Amino acid sequence: MLLLGILGNLGVYMGAVEQMIKWHLFFSLSFVGIVTGIIEAAIISFLFVWLFVWVYNKLY
After folding, report:
1. Number of domains in the chain
2. Domain residues for 14?
3. Quick one: DSSP state of residue 11?
4. pLDDT (tens digit per residue) in 18-42
5. Rounded (10°) angle between helices 2-9 and 31-59
């Protein structure tokens, strides 16, 4: 997300940047938007991994 934010500010990969803005609530091309997008992605990833590990441990 950091790389895409930097490249988006340079005008590269604008299609991917538009999709990232569309799918993430807090991502934008500003510095604060990039940082909040990274935090959002980290929280969502943590929750999905935690849920997967919890289900895995319950099954096995």
Report:
1. 1
2. 2-59
3. T
4. 999 999 999 999 999 999 999 999 9
5. 150
